[in-house]
Design brief:
alpha+beta; 218 residues; four-stranded antiparallel β-sheet; 6 helices
């Protein structure tokens, strides 16, 4: 796995309570590349702390952000389905601690720990449900609704203790790539949301649960 020079430290870890597998804990600084599109896919990653952006690059050189993930999330799981190369680039958005597990060791954990396998299955179902929802959003919803839904997801709306939550630093360019619109449109709607009291800039971007009204509006 290629790591950016900004990755501060790589520390072997013998056993972790949440899996019982031999792992490697790696600390990345902001903007550090965890792996690049096209790299060999040999390990599954788990975000112990921080935030990670997944992006893809087309043959024409156009980049699109496909996900922003925070602590408690897996990524790079395509290797479990015999994916030989990474399909996306993973970049740390904040100081992040990533736990890397070799593919074969991950598979052994599924057999040895049913509870862990259930947790991972729930993660995969959630991930693919979101992909399906995003496709429907792109087909039928306005860019304003898509932006509101993206902000609520980043704020982990519906998760206990996550209401009125401050987001990790996300640029308007990144939001535009996630929503499938232009930065100017994102800027327009962000100003609108702020005036309506749906969001606030308080030591970062704070998302209020009232933003849900945009998603539910006709």
């Amino acid at each position: 796995m290629r790591a950016s020079k900004r990755a501060a430290l790589s520390t072997p870890v013998t056993t972790l309570a949440w899996t019982g597998a031999r792992t490697e804990r790696i600390h990345y600084g902001p903007a550090a590349r965890i792996f690049a599109q096209g790299d060999p896919a040999t390990r599954v990653m788990y975000i112990e702390s921080g935030a990670v952006r997944l992006s893809v690059l087309s043959h024409a050189g156009k980049e699109a952000v496909v996900a922003v993930l925070e602590n408690g999330r897996f990524f790079g799981e395509g290797c479990l389905a015999s994916q030989p190369r990474r399909m996306a680039t993973a970049t740390a958005m904040a100081p992040s601690t990533i736990i890397a597990v070799e593919k074969d060791d991950m598979v052994r954990q599924f057999h040895a720990q049913p509870a862990f396998a259930d947790r991972f299955l729930a993660h995969m179902l959630t991930r693919y449900t979101r992909i399906e929802e995003d496709l429907i959003d792109q087909l039928f919803d306005s860019s304003e609704k898509r932006l509101a839904r993206t902000l609520l997801r980043l704020a982990r709306y519906g998760v206990r203790g996550a209401s009125d939550r401050t987001l990790p630093r996300v640029s308007q360019e990144t939001l535009a790539e996630m929503v499938g619109t232009t930065r100017s449109r994102v800027n327009f709607f962000m100003h609108k949301f702020r005036k309506l009291g749906f969001i606030a800039y308080e030591r970062g971007l704070k998302i209020h649960s009232s933003l849900l009204t945009v998603v539910l509006s006709d």
